[in-house]
């Protein structure tokens, strides 16, 4: 029978001081919290590789951890540099071609299309707004294209700044990852010692965090990669720059509900309006049947490791996670839901007799 702990006034002071110190520590690391959490999650994914290095060199923990970080760098950074260079090249070429198309009468050709003319007539007839004039719209688009051309330097500088921030965050994450891998046994032992739970409850909580972290990363990022590859193939066959638009589809797949439709619907409309009806139909069918099925089948399959989380809960955890935390919310959302469910299960076990008595009363 466990001994009951008597809470004294000194205990209360200690708990308040500990909470205050904890909040202060959080405020100190808050700008870097995403890097720290990503290091924790990636440590779970990299742990099998790290265990292999540890098995080969059991007395050299620092070297084993360093080699694991180097492997991760070659897996992520090196391919990303090549992809980023190709995206910048294709994106720049696409911007130049779009500017030429707009300034050489492409917009006028589109607005002269019978479907567009009929659509504008219907809008002007039924909508309670001022008449929509095709000529004024064409002029506005031309101005935007001119502004895009003049702002390419600023856009390129922002992209370069974002890439620099990514590299800084990545190397900070590597620094944290090194210590998480090297001292993983001590960290887990300290967490187990501090948590006021039984060993079985601790196992359940830690196992669920590991399971959901892996499934969230695999479900979100592998689905994005698969949709980006499939979407890039479809765009390439339809005559668009492959890598650039495939990458855009991969990023768009992170957005719940609309997802890759943000990319392929405008592309399909562009093909229709420029007379490429066959390729427009092909791209729409390909995007719905192939790219869409990846999201509907692969993501739920990869995320089914989340204990007792049905599709509806996964959907809201992703949607709410993005709303609160941005892109990283694709991991935070499911993780918060899963931890909450585990805590509910522990609560149900601890108060089972009371809850059963309430049900029977």
From TrEMBL:
Annotated Pfam families: AI-2E_transport
Superkingdom: Bacteria
Keywords: Membrane, Transmembrane, Transmembrane helix
Keyword Protein transport: no
Cellular localization per UniProt: Membrane
Residues annotated as transmembrane: 12-29, 35-53, 65-88, 163-181, 216-237, 243-265, 277-294, 314-347
Bilayer disposition of the protein: Multi-pass membrane protein
UniProt GO cellular component terms: membrane
Main location: membrane
Family label: Belongs to the autoinducer-2 exporter (AI-2E) (TC 2.A.86) family.
Protein name: Permease
Annotated organism of origin: Vibrio navarrensis
């Amino acid at each position: 029978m466990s001994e009951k702990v008597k809470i004294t006034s000194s205990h209360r002071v200690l708990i308040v001081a500990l909470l205050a110190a904890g909040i202060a520590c959080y405020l100190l690391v808050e700008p870097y919290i995403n890097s720290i959490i990503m290091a924790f999650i990636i440590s779970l994914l990299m742990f099998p590789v790290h265990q292999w290095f540890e098995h080969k060199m059991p007395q050299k923990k620092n070297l084993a951890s360093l080699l694991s970080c180097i492997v991760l760098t070659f897996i992520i950074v090196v391919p990303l540099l090549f992809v980023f260079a190709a995206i910048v090249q294709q994106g720049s070429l696409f911007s130049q071609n779009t500017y030429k198309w707009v300034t050489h009468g492409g917009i006028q050709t589109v607005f002269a299309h019978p479907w567009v003319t009929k659509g504008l007539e219907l809008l002007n007839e039924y909508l309670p707004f001022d008449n929509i004039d095709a000529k004024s719209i064409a002029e506005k688009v031309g101005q935007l294209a001119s502004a895009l051309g003049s702002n390419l330097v600023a856009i390129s500088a922002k992209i370069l700044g974002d890439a620099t921030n990514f590299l800084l965050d990545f190397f900070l994450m590597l620094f944290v990852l090194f210590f998480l891998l090297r001292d993983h046994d001590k960290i887990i032992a300290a967490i187990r010692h501090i948590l006021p739970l039984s060993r079985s409850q601790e196992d359940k909580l830690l196992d669920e965090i590991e399971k959901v972290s892996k499934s969230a990363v695999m479900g979100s990022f592998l689905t994005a990669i698969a949709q980006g590859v499939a979407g890039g193939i479809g765009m390439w066959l339809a005559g668009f720059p492959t890598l650039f638009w495939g990458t855009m589809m991969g990023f768009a797949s992170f957005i719940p509900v609309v997802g890759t439709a943000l990319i392929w619907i405008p592309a399909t409309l562009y093909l229709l309006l420029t007379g490429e009806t066959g390729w427009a139909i092909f791209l729409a069918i390909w995007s719905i049947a192939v790219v869409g099925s990846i999201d509907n089948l692969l993501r739920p399959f990869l995320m089914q490791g989340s204990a007792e989380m049905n599709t509806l809960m996964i959907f809201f955890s992703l949607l709410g996670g993005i709303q609160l935390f941005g892109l990283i919310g694709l991991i935070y959302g499911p993780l918060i839901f899963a931890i909450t469910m585990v805590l509910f299960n522990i609560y149900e076990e601890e108060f089972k007799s009371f809850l059963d008595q309430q049900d029977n009363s």
